[in-house]
Design goal:
This protein is mostly helical. It folds into two domains: 176 residues, Cytochrome c-like domain (Cytochrome Bc1 Complex, Chain D, domain 2); 226 residues, Cytochrome c-like domain (Cytochrome Bc1 Complex, Chain D, domain 2), CATH 1.10.760.10. It has twelve helices and four strands. The strands form two sheets. It has a two-stranded antiparallel ribbon. The longest helix is centred in the first third of the chain and has 37 residues.
Length: 449
Amino acid sequence: MHRQPKYVVALAFAIGLLFAACTSEQAADTLDVTLERQIARVAPTGSLEDFRVPHHEDLANIPAGIGNPLTPEKVELGKMLFYETALGRDAVHESGMMTFSCASCHVPSAGFMPGAIQGIADGAQGFGFNGESRQMRPDYSEDQIDAQGARPLSMIGTAYVTNSMWAGRFGARFNNEGTEHLWGVFDHATAINHTGLDGLEAQNIEGTIVHRMRVDDYILDTLGYRALFDRAFYDWPENARYGREAMSFALSAYIRTIMPYEAPFQRWLRGETDAMTKQQKLGALVFFGDGGCYRCHNSPALNGNTFHAIGVNDLCDVGGLATGLNDERNLGRGGFTRRQEDMFAFKVPQLYNLKDSPFYFHGSSHYDLRDVVAYFNAGIPENPRVPPENISRFFHPLNLTEQQMEDLTEFLKHGLYDPNLERFVPESVLSGNCFPNNDPISRAQLGCD
């Protein structure tokens, strides 16, 4: 019997191991290749780049508002102002003075959303662990609190929002071209659109008024913010350098940098194939495939600049304060445009870090992401006040399997989760106040006392 030399046997064994390893690697790569191809197939320009967000310090590649180029100095000032409770100097009652900030309703640990069903700035107290314990103060009446009639949108990925708010009321360009005759008519705040500014910058000018905040000599000189304004707006005339427009531009610059860069899906898009689990990749396939989610959530931050009626309940249906059945904000885009076809249609929100604040849709009507997926899969409106003819053509039964829904939920919950949003939070603000809230109850709960 002829025997093979030992080196031939060893070589054959090595080749076998290499083949097995390659086969295993190819099997693992198949899902990544399939997902890459599927995303490219539905991407607006046919590239994975369409869904990648820049690093928050890569200012040159972050969309800026018209007339508001991004600079490190503006971003740093805006970062301080966003959390500065001392700005709350126009509170209704003395007890509310300097107790709230932008972050009262956009809590970083809650995905830059409220930790409760509704955002309340002036007129509320308490924080809890994640903002879930914020409630109306006993010395305020319901008509005195600064409460939003629809759930505040997340600040994540706002740089990709062309017209801000659920109804897209703010901003002179994009969706609001052709609505000039409405600016300042039914909603006086929208007169700011005549300045030609984009959504975020326009909204924040009006927002600082609505939310009872201002910059004055106390803020500038006693607390020391004048130097920060001088650095950020050195080329502005002195009589404009410290006003609401400068305040808005700084806030907007900071907000535009809030990017979910460290989320597993973003890392996977940059080539880290192990950043997502197999189930998250399968869920992404559903998102960009059978689920059709990409049809509306099509920006790098997975928000969208279109408006859709999907028939969910309103904030008044779940116990929201300072709102009701006749609240114009329940009408969505139609409340701004007055067009029948826009009634009950709301802007497509971003999808990162949703699991941090378990309240979903403009009316906080659902409390679980799996339930949200099931609602879209069923395609049956829950709000009887929304006429069938207004329901979006994209809202219909999806016929996903139970496993597809589980996979999609996992992708939304963990594949789109940036674990380090605290990088957008300053260590302290110049006032030394507690933030995001500075009322006695919040200070105790936040460990500031």
